[in-house]
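User:
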Amino acid sequence: MLERLNGKSSKRGNIAMVSALALVPLSYAVLCGVEIAGISQSKASLQAAVDGGALAGAGELSVSTRGDDGIRSTAISLATSAVSGRTDIAPPSFTVDINRTSGTVRVTARTQFQSMFSGLVTSQSPIEVTSTAETLSKTPLCVLQIDQTATVGAVVMDRAVVRAPGCLVQSNSAISVTNLGRIEAGSVQAVTGATGTISPAASVGALPIQDPFDDLDLTSPNCVNALENVVHSGNSVISLPAGVHCENYRVTGNATLILEPGEHYFKGQLEFNGNSKLRGNDVVLIFDPDRAFSFDQKADIRITARQTGPLAGFLIATGRSNTKRFTISSNQVRELLGTIYIPGSELYVSSSGNVAQDSAWSVIVAKRLTLANNPVLVINKNYVGSGVPVPEGVGPSSGVPRLAR
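Assistant: Predicted structure:
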């Protein structure tokens, strides 16, 4: 009987010992999990600190009288204060790299994770994070391909050229330049990829730029009757007052259509063919959904944007629901001074010469941009003295710093 009891006690002791031994690796695994989570949290906090430092430094970079030492001091001061008092990391060291050519400030932080278990689970783990912010005040945003879902959003093919000296050309997806096409700009950025002849080389991996005019009100009164078809031809000269236009306009031959100053709401198509002309100063052309312009053959186009009012700075605009193609195939489209805002549409340029070369400045915000054949799309940035203000969010007014990567 005693032997039987001793046998049971021995078995219970073995089980207890095995259970205790099994708890050791289990406890170690739990502690490791806690440490890993702590390292991840510390890294996230440090990342937020360098993000803030980089943005502060980029903001200082836009001030022409601010020296590099002052920029570094501002960036480091803000980043340091963001992690002040933290006990999970050693006091970090910060380095700041300033690139005035590209308008960027990069902040790097290095530190070590402080184990709450005094190194029982992990030794002091090194942490390094970096953040780059840019200011666009020196490189104004002139071309924005806005659709982030497109595989390729900006296409330049054949012998087509985008010439935007001193401007930022941004694709929220990818840029494809093929054949003898090329892009020449102050800076070129793409979110997912860029191929072909691009000068300077495109920066890939950029953050998307959100629609700067997402809340723009483009509503207009409805037409009471069905749209009429109006054709102007021969040598006629027609002056069109601002307002709502309930007609499909086709201007051909040597006819001239003059838009009087103000907002022009087009409920129908607007087509120019032959040697026709379009003139208008201090105007904005607003198109209904499923309506667009077409500048074909040798149509001579010279228009400048609104100078005052809620649509000041806009030249051509339509809502996001408009998916029509806006077409320029004439080589006489000399002046498009202002902002072309077609966030749901494609701007298709297929002329055989310079486009918009006489414009003091131009801005394009489109869902998709395509250049084919051999046009040269000229994007100038002579904002001062143009008489037309640049809408907030593009051009030189887009100098608010943002994280670049």
